[in-house]
Design brief:
The protein has 2 domains: 98 residues, 2-Layer Sandwich (Alpha-Beta Plaits); 63 residues, no CATH class. The relative contact order is 0.15. The longest helix has 27 residues. The protein is built from 6 helices and 4 strands; from the N terminus they run βαββααβααα. By secondary structure, the chain is of the alpha+beta class. Strand 2 and strand 3 form a beta hairpin. Helices cover 46% and strands 15% of the residues.
Length: 190
């Protein structure tokens, strides 16, 4: 497996794994994905998983986005007894070695997996538009629900709590959800 450790292993991390699946193994791979994802859910440090399925039936590229609280938690999962039987089966499904990429914090909000064809990041104005569409409703909701609860706190403490909650919601589930919904607009097909 082609992987290297990120520079800040104590930060929350998103691991992007790209697998190219054998055409005759797609159904078996889908069952395998369901099983391994269920096994990951109870593992310490695991936050979430998202599977991006192939757009092109001729290029069976699956992208799995794993989110862990830190790099060490991801490595512990990879080396665990719970993962071993699942990872041992992977060679049966893939055409070549999986590709691993790491992103810390929010870096993957507007990035796409490396593909055979070059896919560029969306233009700056599209990124801003989608960000505003995600952030604005959250701020309205937080102001409506939290401001009355935080009224007795110093302003800087109340603001910190609001930013903390907003950032957590944006990291997962809001931005992944919003970018999936706007994917055709952010990444139009040529």
């Amino acid at each position: 497996m082609a992987e290297s450790q990120p520079s800040r292993p104590s930060d929350p991390i998103t691991v992007m794994i790209t697998d190219h699946i054998k055409p005759e193994k797609v159904e078996a791979f889908e069952r395998w994905l369901t099983g391994i994802n269920a096994a990951r859910r109870g593992f310490p440090g695991f936050l979430s998983v998202e599977v991006i399925r192939p757009e092109d039936p001729a290029d069976l590229q699956y992208v799995v986005l794993l989110r862990f609280d830190r790099y060490d938690s991801f490595k512990a999962w990879q080396q665990s007894e719970a993962a071993a039987p699942w990872l041992a089966q992977l060679d049966d499904f893939v055409q070549r070695e999986p590709d691993f990429q790491y992103a810390l914090g929010l870096e993957l909000w507007f990035t796409r997996p490396q593909q055979q064809r070059l896919v560029r990041k969306p233009p700056w104005w599209k990124q801003v538009t989608v960000s505003v569409l995600a952030v604005y409703p959250l701020i309205l909701c937080l102001n409506w629900t939290l401001v009355p609860l935080l009224a007795g706190l110093p302003r800087w403490v109340a603001t910190f709590i609001m930013v903390l909650i907003l950032s957590g919601l944006l990291a997962n589930p809001v931005m992944p959800f919003v970018t999936r919904r706007f994917q055709p607009w952010l990444y139009p097909r040529p």
